[in-house]
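Action item from last meeting closed. Structure (305 res):
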C-alpha cells in the first residue's frame, strides 16, 4: 500500500493512539509517526517501546509539519489540546480525533483551528478496557467500523484521504451526522456501559454484606459486566458529560422497559418475559452474523491486551 500521509502526529499515546501506530506500521501507510503525551511517564514508555519514530516534549513541536494530526485524548481534554497545537499547524494539514462523542468534539475543536486546516472528526468503534501506551495492538481496528462525522463544507479530498488511512488500518468507514452518531452510540455503547457500571456497583455494595461471595462465585454475566466496568474512568466520565441528552433519552427508555419487566416478574407474567427474551436473543444472533462479535461471552475483546 502506498503512503497516505508523509507525517502523522498522534496527540495522546493511550490505547487508541498506540493501536493506530502499530496498525499504521503494519500497513506501511505513513512516512513518519510523531507522538506526544502530557506525562513524562507515558512519553518515556512510548520511547522505550519504540511506539513512534519520534516523541516530542510538547504538543506544538509534535504537530510541526504534520500532514495529519490525530487527537487521541479524552473528550474533555480536546479543547485545551487544540489551543496548544493550533498556532503550530501547517496550512493544508488535516486535524482529526478519535473521541467517543462527536458533537462535543466538534464544538471544542473547530472554532480554534486556523483557516486552511481541514477538520475531519472520526470515531473508531473499537476498544478494550485497557489503557496506556503499552495496551495497543495492530489488529484492534480490523473489521470494525470507523465513523466519520465531517461538518458541512469540508474538502472532499481531506475526507477521502482520512478514509484511505482508516481503511488501511483495517476499518470499514462510514460517514454519519454527528448528532445521529451520538444517539446511536448512546444505545450501542454509552448506556450499556452505565448499566454495567451500575450492576458492578450494586454487587460491590452487596459484597460488603455477603463477604466476597460475589467475587468467589462470580458467574459469566457478572464477569462480563466487570470487564466493561473496568474501562478508563476519565474517558467514561467525559463520555457521559458530553453525550448527556442522548444518554438520558436512552436511559429513560431503559428504565421504562426495566419497570415493565419488573412488573412481569412480580405478576408472574411468564409470557411477557419469554417473548422479551426471544426478541433480544435474535438481536444477538444478528450481531454475530454481521461479524461484529464472536460467540465467546467476552464482548469480543478476549485475548487482547
Ligand atoms: P487512554 O489509553 O486512557 O489514553 C489517554 C491519553 O490521553 C493518554 O496519552 C493521556 O496522557 C492523555 N490524557 C488524559 N487526560 C488528558 C488531559 N486532561 N489532557 C491531555 N492529555 C490527556 O485512552 P484511549 O482509550 O486511547 O482513549 C482516547 C480517546 O479515544 C478518548 O477520546 C476516547 O473517548 C476514545 N475512544 C476510546 C475507546 C476505548 O474503548 N478505549 C474506543 C474508541 C474511542 P498521559 O498518559 O500522558 O497522562
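Sequence:
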Amino acid at each position: 500500500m502506498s503512503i497516505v500521509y508523509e507525517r502523522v502526529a498522534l496527540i495522546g499515546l493511550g490505547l487508541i493512539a498506540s493501536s493506530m501506530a502499530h496498525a499504521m506500521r503494519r500497513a506501511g501507510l505513513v512516512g513518519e509517526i510523531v507522538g506526544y503525551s502530557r506525562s513524562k511517564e507515558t512519553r518515556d514508555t512510548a520511547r522505550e517501546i519504540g511506539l513512534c519514530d519520534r516523541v516530542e516534549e510538547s504538543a506544538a513541536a509534535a504537530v510541526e509539519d504534520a500532514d495529519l494530526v490525530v487527537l487521541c485524548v479524552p473528550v474533555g481534554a480536546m479543547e485545551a489540546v487544540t489551543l496548544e497545537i493550533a498556532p503550530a499547524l501547517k496550512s493544508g494539514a488535516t486535524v482529526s480525533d478519535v473521541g467517543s462523542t462527536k458533537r462535543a468534539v466538534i464544538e471544542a475543536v473547530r472554532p480554534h483551528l486556523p483557516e486552511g486546516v481541514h477538520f475531519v472528526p472520526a470515531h473508531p468503534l473499537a476498544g478494550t478496557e485497557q489503557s496506556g501506551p503499552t495496551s495497543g495492538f495492530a489488529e484492534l481496528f480490523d473489521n470494525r467500523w470507523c465513523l466519520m462525522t465531517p461538518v458541512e463544507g469540508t474538502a472532499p479530498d481531506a475526507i477521502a484521504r482520512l478514509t484511505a488511512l482508516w481503511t488501511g488500518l483495517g476499518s470499514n468507514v462510514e460517514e454519519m451526522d454527528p448528532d445521529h452518531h451520538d444517539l446511536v452510540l448512546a444505545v450501542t455503547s454509552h448506556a450499556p456501559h452505565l448499566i454495567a457500571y451500575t450492576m458492578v456497583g450494586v454487587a460491590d455494595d452487596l459484597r460488603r454484606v455477603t463477604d466476597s461471595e460475589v467475587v468467589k462465585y462470580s458467574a459469566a454475566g457478572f464477569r462480563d459486566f466487570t470487564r466493561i466496568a473496568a474501562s478508563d474512568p476519565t474517558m467514561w466520565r467525559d463520555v457521559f458529560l458530553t453525550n448527556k441528552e442522548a444518554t438520558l433519552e436512552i436511559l429513560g427508555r431503559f428504565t421504562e422497559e426495566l419497570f415493565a419487566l419488573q412488573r412481569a416478574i412480580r405478576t408472574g407474567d411468564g409470557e411477557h418475559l419469554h417473548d422479551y427474551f426471544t426478541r433480544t436473543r435474535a438481536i444477538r444472533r444478528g450481531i454475530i452474523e454481521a461479524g461484529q462479535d464472536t460467540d465467546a461471552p467476552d464482548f469480543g475483546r478476549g485475548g487482547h491486551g
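Note appended to the action item: The mean pLDDT is 93.
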